[in-house]
Amino acid sequence: MVLEVDQDQSSPQAQAVRWLDTVAAWCGPLAVILVVVAGTLYAPSAAGASPTMTGTALVSAFAQNISAAPASAVAYLLAATSMLAFAGALFDHLRRGQMTHWPAFLAAGGAVATAIELTEYARITLASVVAVNNGDAVTAGVVTTLSWEAARLFAAGAVAMMAGAGVAGLRGALPRWLTVLSLLGAGGVLAASVAAAVPDTVVAAAPAGLLALLGLLWTFPAAVVMTRRNRHGGR
User: Fold this and answer.
1) What are phi and psi of 187, to 5 degrees?
2) 121-175 residue pLDDT tens
């Protein structure tokens, strides 16, 4: 019986499935890289844009490097697509051998929520182009406020993803070191996000999106673990 399983695992179909699972696992880190690229291409906040700015000063901040905004939006959309692929791979990995699947659903749901937020970033970036082309300070102000609030919500997906993975890890779905890292990461990003909402704190001065991006770095060790499992035929 074991021999038959080994033969099945070495069949071309099984190898193709494992290859696709590995590609999907590394779509998480790819999404993080694409987010960094998108933010590097176009980020009004880097030019000083904030909800406290108004009028032509805000439009001028948006206008800096505006030609790169469409490419930035495309990068966000590609990141969202990559995160959806990672969500599927993560769910498949965490649910194996589990009596209940809610931790896997929570982790995958966090990844899906992150993908939705990345799509929102793409929409906001394209809206910036409209605001600059029309010289519309009101639209620029709305876009700025939306981008700041979206950055705060961005962390929620990372927290859910790591928390779900951590709970599944307690049930044997992940190595102990990644389980501990997942739970500590979820708690750390959640605590930092709560602190960021409190005025006059050190964390409040940090960009909220940076906190979420730090949380998404968890996808790198997660991809390594999933790749190792795929190489052993999913066992």
Assistant:
1) -65, -40
2) 899 888 888 878 777 777 777 777 777 767 777 888 999 999 999 999 999 999 9
How does DSSP classify residue 218?
A: T
Sign of CA dihedral 29, 81, 159, 94: negative
> How far is residue 83's CA from residue 158's CA, in Å, rounded to a whole number?
11
Contacts of 2 (CB under 8 A, 6+ apart): none
Structure tokens of 105?
């659903």
Q: Per-residue DSSP letters for 120-168?
A: HHHHHHHHHHHHHHHT-HHHHHHHHHHHHHHHHHHHHHHHHHHHHHHHH
88-106 burial string, b = 16+ CB within 10 Å, else e? bbbbbbbbeeeeeeebbbb
Q: Rounded CA gap, 176 and 182, in Å?
A: 10
